Amino acid sequence: MNWLKIGMFGLAFVTLIGLIYAIEPDKIIDAMSEIEFSLLILAVILYLINTVIKAMRWRLIVSSIGTQLGYVEAVRLFLCGLAVNNTTPGGVSGEPLRVMLLRYKKGTPTGEGLSTIFSERLIDLTVLMCLSVSGLWFLLPILNHGDGQNLLISVGALCIILTTLLTFALHPKPLKIVTAFFEPAESKPKLMQKIHGWILQFQTGLEQLREKREIAIKAFLVTLVIWINASIRFGLIVYAVTGNFEAAGLIILASGLVYSIGTFLPFGVGNIAIATLVLSSANIDEAQAITIGIVEVATSLTLSVPMGILSMGITGMPEEEKSD
């Protein structure tokens, strides 16, 4: 696992350096010098608002399994996971931390905690796929054939993954098959038995959310607000760099692609790469395109990581962990 993380960080670093030197650093510096910083302040405010909204959505989903979080507590625990997510591949490494904190702070079973994270991510992916498909519909005519085809294949692959996950979440039979495989028996190791317990808890958590449709619907609507906010924020950054309304509208259309496909490299490098691809293919200056990606990532990382570290310090290690 450590070698995998090192490899992904290395790939992210090489990708970022390659993008910068392919376009020439001097041009990027010039593009940054022309940024409208008042718009960046507004983009930062939108990011902070979105962070709170995401924490409140998680609090809402967690309530479906009977765990009650205070508003400040939900934001604090969410920030702990967000800081880890924004600095690791795939943006999911912080989720086990949230599950652990739920277990030790609120007594939530591990499997049920995992079900809230799974539900949250599934709703995110559903909304992002809707945005991605809508964006591709408008973007394909203006992208060159190769770039458009690559994005189409990527979105198609993610749609297949989404369909599989939705089937898994909405129909209990697939999960029952998995549960049966880990059915405890004297011949099976204790780890298998423990995993069986987690799966049963996970199943219980999903069932509770399915039964509480009002919470699921509210979470979906809040997710729409989250990603519309993120799209507008991205558009503001584009306009701050380019002063071009058409370019801002273009990236709003492409935001679903950026946030879904781009999460597979850490430190937002994937976001930079996809944003640069879309904007450059649409005749936006390459130096401005990569500057947009860098600024979008910088205005999130420079906020989420310090806030997350502060939240970790306030939250502290679980008592059980301290005694080890």
From TrEMBL:
It is found in: Cell membrane. It holds the Pfam family LPG_synthase_TM. It is a multi-pass membrane protein. It comes from the Archaea. Its main location: membrane. GO terms for cellular component: plasma membrane. Keywords: Cell membrane, Membrane, Transmembrane, Transmembrane helix. The chain crosses the membrane at residues 35-53, 122-140, 152-170, 219-241, 247-278, 290-314. This is TIGR00374 family protein.
